[in-house]
Amino acid sequence: MKLRTNFPEAEAYMQSCMIDSAHDTEHVYRVLNYALDIAKHEGGADIERLTIACLLHDISRTEQFADPNIDHAVHGSLKAHGWLVENGYSSEFAGAVRDCIETHRFRSDNPPRSLEAKILFDADKLDVCGAVGIARTLLYKSHVVEPLYSFTESGKISDGTNEAGKSFMQEYKFKLEGIYDKFYTARGFELAVKRKSAAKDFYDSLLAEVRECYGEVTQ
Fold it and tell me: Is 149 in a helix, a strand, or coil?
């Protein structure tokens, strides 16, 4: 992957931190490309800060997998800040990147504030939309050993709505289905809505097929 801006040290550091298939280096590169596209349409973003934030936004996934109580966004923001200062970046620059990384997850109590943070948030969410989002969700569910679907108390296949457990169906209804109205930038929203039908079609087809397998009638 050839970057449009060249930060080999940050890129190498990122590569050393990525471990799982759903959050691998290619996820990072896709997020970076989305972010640069959004920035081009939005105008006014600091491209150096944005690029570094994109490269380092998931560097604490390893720590979160080891301890689910760790928030990879918060932990990663501090980890990135320390690495940047140690490698000659100013405290002001490192702080701006830290803030971008800290707010790139869905958190109603800590939304992104700067333009660069909003662009990173949108770029990261674009990689959860459409066919790529479905594929990444399935990879992640496999990694954490969670099922495709579960059953209701009456023994029917759950569609994921108000599901107590964790499954692909629950993830779709809880997160993927409603992600399209969560974007901060017009360009991010524009790119996201193009992918909505691909994700919905997969979910609908999967639900229909497994229900048919268990003899349930699908309307």
Answer: coil
Coil, strand or helix at 75: helix
Mean pLDDT of 177-192: 95
Q: How far apart are CA 68 and CA 63, in angstroms?
A: 8
**Cα(83)–Cα(75) distance, integer angstroms:** 12
Which residues neighbour 106 within 8 Å (Cβ) at sequence distance 6 or greater?
A: 175, 182
Amino acid identity for residue 219 in this structure: Q
Q: What's the pLDDT tens digit per position in 93-133? A: 999 999 999 999 987 688 999 999 999 999 999 999 999 99
Contact between 127 and 54 under an 8 Å Cβ cutoff? The reply is no
Angle at 177 between CA 175 and CA 182, to 5 degrees: 70
- List of residues 6+ apart from 85 with CB closer than 8 A: 91, 94
Which stretches within the chain are classed as H helix?
8-17, 25-42, 47-56, 61-66, 72-86, 91-102, 115-126, 130-143, 168-171, 186-193, 196-213
